[in-house]
Amino acid sequence: WRAVLRIDKQCPSHLAIQENANALARYASICQQNGLVPIVEPEVIPDGDHDMEHCQYVTEKVLAAVYKALNDHHVYLEGTLLKPNMVTAGHACTKKYTPEQVAMATVTALYRTVPAAVPGICFLSGGMSEEDATLNLNAINLCPLPKPWKLSFSYGRALQASALAAWGGKAANKKATQEAFMKRALANCQAAKGQYVHTGSSGAASTQSLFTACYTY
């Protein structure tokens, strides 16, 4: 269940954070009552020109509210997964940050808000390019801060872009499509263990930003 929160002048409001947190918690409770593992997805989308520090502040507020709501709804945390955004600057921010800076801000926000009982955190890619999503995940797993959870990925666009470019809508490109998808999947598997090495040989599709304004569904 995905809850979208946007950073703007007065947003996200306290009410928006609380209502979305309660909706996620209710969803998680219903999942567990029916034998399912809920993937709780509070996403602070990257629209805007805010810096990374402001994104970290908002992300911490959102995650703290989510885990308060999960507790209020008696959700068994050991039977959940979290699918959050990484802490990054807004898409229109002129200041650029390294994967190591993103990793430090992201793990700090998580360590302050997510209980150690949560077994796994699977990041969304949030419109990053395939390569940026992989590099950031790798840096997160190499971050020297305490990380009591498994830190992995649950990417959509950042797994599919190169494969879709290779396919081009033609059945004859099936093998190339599969190879492109497997290459990116392997890269992210390595990044989830902090073992990814950037070779600089990535194709154009893997370095292209996948940002879509107001990406809600």
UniProtKB/TrEMBL annotation:
Pathway membership, UniProt: Carbohydrate degradation; glycolysis; D-glyceraldehyde 3-phosphate and glycerone phosphate from D-glucose: step 4/4
EC number: 4.1.2.13
Catalytic reaction(s) noted: beta-D-fructose 1,6-bisphosphate = D-glyceraldehyde 3-phosphate + dihydroxyacetone phosphate
Top-rank taxon: Eukaryota
Record key words, sorted: Glycolysis, Lyase, Schiff base
One GO MF term: fructose-bisphosphate aldolase activity
Biological processes per GO annotation: glycolytic process
UniProt cross-references to Pfam families, sorted A to Z: Glycolytic
Family: Belongs to the class I fructose-bisphosphate aldolase family.
NCBIfam families to which the protein is assigned, alphabetical: FrucBisAld_I
Name used for this protein in its record: Fructose-bisphosphate aldolase
Organism of provenance: Sus scrofa (Pig)
